[in-house]
Write a structure and sequence with these properties.
- The chain is 40% helix and 16% strand.
- It is an alpha+beta fold and 410 residues long.
- The longest helix is centred in the last third of the chain and has 23 residues, at 356-378.
- It has a five-stranded mixed beta sheet with strand order 3-11-7-10-4.
- Strand 8 and strand 9 form a beta hairpin.
């Protein structure tokens, strides 16, 4: 990045700017701007522009190093999936984009104040853009992919006197603390027209909210959210259990109907955890994730697979049926003390962490105990053939996926 000019230079006379219509010149673009008084050494302004015009005066320069190892640029690589999500949203008639594209300039612009809080900027549009996109590169790239749409967005710009100042502003702008994900997830159920990735999370957040606040829920007040910081079970953990079920489990049949999903899903999960709390009361009551793996993220999500097994194989739907199905686990768990006895190792009760390998190990252990108990009760054979293993049954795709997932080291 080597700016051709480190000063703000006037490209056209004031009278030429005033006469320009439609505010386009052969080598410049002219915009009316909002010009707040902030810092005399670094002017700040805002205006609206089309994406096609932004491309004429702003560039994206990614961080890299030359052969000598010198650093240039500052933007991270593009994220194709994120860009496509933004583009798909912007193609909808109801789309809006209030987030501004932030552009930094070192030169090539003429800025004048025309009235209190207002001004006019003239931006050079030569062979090389004179500005650098400091924030909003994914949004800008998505805008550039729109077809047959004249979409205007806000541009917030600033003029720096040096490259060092431009880099400083980039760091400050991109170092602000984002909204907590948990709060974003709580807000999702109130929104529509979300990308698919966020829609599944929105449905999970909807059920989580119902489980935390409905009077008849076995988990009422126990789920930790931004709006309920005293809860014990983290909302994101329960959402993972729900998303697994919506994707390939018991709730997948209702994924296309939020009202039905809310009714059936809330009841099913509430009834299941009523049974869990009853059978393992000593490991649940008064505990936190640090003192009991039963209310820990690993335990909650692993129990979700047990719920899927009992619902899919035994047809369990209410607390009595779930309690009967879960009873073989009594004495075979180490939620608060003792050791877990897996096929290939022994692990202390608190040795299980919230990592994929441990989650898979615990999930398979719980389901295997339930499976063996059912086979013993029904007299089913356990000879290793597909017909003898419920995990391979097409009615249990979530458990089949779990069994087929390769083991990863911690």
């Amino acid at each position: 990045m080597s700016p051709s000019n480190s000063k703000v230079v006037a490209l056209v006379r004031n009278e030429d700017v005033e006469k320009s219509s439609p505010r386009r010149q052969a080598d410049a673009l002219v915009y009316d701007v909002i010009l707040p008084r902030q810092n005399d050494a670094c002017a700040v302004f805002t205006f609206a522009a089309r994406a096609s015009d932004i491309a004429r005066f702003a560039r994206i320069e990614r961080a890299g190093r030359n052969e000598e190892g010198a650093l240039s640029g500052f933007q991270r690589p593009q994220i194709a999936g994120h860009i496509n999500e933004i583009r798909d949203y912007l193609e909808k008639p109801e789309a809006i984009l209030p987030n501004a594209i932030i552009v930094g300039f070192l030169g090539g612009v003429a800025l004048e104040r025309t009235a209190s809080g207002r001004g006019r900027i003239t931006i050079a549009t030569g062979a090389e853009p004179v500005g650098w996109i400091v924030d909003g590169q994914q949004r800008f790239t998505a805008l550039s992919k729109l077809a047959d749409r004249d979409f205007e967005v806000f541009v917030s710009g600033f003029v720096c006197s040096s490259l060092e100042e431009l880099h400083r502003q980039f760091i400050l702008i991109n170092s602000t603390r984002p909204l907590p994900k948990a709060l974003v997830y709580e807000l999702l159920p109130r929104l529509g027209h979300l990308p698919a990735r966020m829609s599944s999370r929105s449905q999970a957040a909807l059920l989580t909210e119902a489980l935390n606040y409905r009077p008849d829920s076995s988990l009422r007040g126990m789920i930790r959210q931004q709006t309920n910081p005293r809860g014990i079970v983290r909302d994101t953990v329960l959402q993972k259990l729900i998303m697994n079920s919506i994707s390939d489990g018991a709730l997948r049949l209702y994924a296309g109907d939020d009202a039905l999903l809310l009714e059936r899903g809330t009841r099913l999960i509430s009834e299941f955890f009523h049974a869990v709390r009853h059978l393992f009361a000593a490991d649940w009551d008064g505990h936190t994730p640090k003192s009991s793996r039963l209310v820990h993220g690993t335990g909650i999500v692993a129990l979700g697979y047990a719920m899927e097994f009992l619902h899919g194989v035994n047809g369990a739907e209410d607390r009595t049926e779930f309690a009967a199905g879960l009873r073989p686990l009594v004495g075979r768990t180490a939620w608060t003390s003792g050791t877990w006895r897996f096929d290939d190792e022994i692990r202390t009760w608190n040795g299980l962490q919230n990592v994929p390998a441990d989650l898979r190990k615990l999930s398979l252990h719980l389901v295997d105990v339930l499976r063996r108990a059912r086979e013993k009760e029904s007299g089913a054979r356990d000879d290793g053939r597909p017909g003898a293993d419920p995990l391979l049954d097409d009615t249990l795709p979530l458990l089949r996926t779990l069994a087929a997932t390769p083991v990863r080291e911690r």
